[in-house]
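Below sits my pick:
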Amino acid sequence: MPQFAANLSMLYQEHAFLDRFEAAARDGFKAVEYLFPYAFDRHEIAARLQAHGLQQALFNAPPGDWDAGERGLACLPGREAQFRIGFAQALAYAATLDCPRIHVMAGLLPAGASFDALYATYVGNLRWAAQEAARQGVTVLIEPINTRDIPGFYLNRQDQAHAVLAAVGEPNLKVQMDLYHCQIVEGDLAMKLRRYLPTGQVGHVQIAGVPQRHEPDLGEINYPYLLALLDELGYSGWVGCEYRPADPLAGGTSAGLGWLTPWLKR
């Protein structure tokens, strides 16, 4: 059956960040993910993971100046040194947290720039990152993100991402397949899963309801069918629950986890 990881950047916001680990474990999660850990001491995070029997499934490398609107550095010419410094920081956190995956956000297309004009920078940065991560046994992930949520994001489609993997040519570079983003941009989710999961090039899956990014049982996607398909296709990785609870004030995250209960009981 699928293994579920709670995304602590979106779930359990009724608690302080370091208290979300306990809340997730209490609800039955065995792993967690989140956007960025860097505001917190990595040893303190490791202690929370150990105390509550949780695995760290994933986190993101530093994205540049997030508060100023940056959403990654990997595709941006002239920012290579900053990208490398940030990725080294991510590897240090991954070592302490025993985390096997780091997501590298591509970044936003600068005004007037084309996808092709930034491609060499993107591929070069990812090749360097994958080689550095391989020394530590870490997988690097890239994620196509829809341009409704992040206008101007560099990488949007599954076929783009898999072409990048081929261009980089490092076996520990894989795709983070977020079914929420994929549905908005492309749809045809079952056939996308059937096409890409057997290649071994999908390193992580994430879910959320569409269109409002609430619980997976809200919206247009038939997640029971897709989760069963993950089993059928032999996917053994984590499924990240990266959604915003629809009614966080009415019982918090836990009150909206009815969709998950049947899976945890299997």
Summary: Residues 3-264 form a domain with the TIM Barrel fold (CATH 3.20.20.150). The first strand starts at residue 3 and ends at 7. The chain has a mean pLDDT of 96. The CA atoms of residues 36 and 216 lie 23 Å apart.
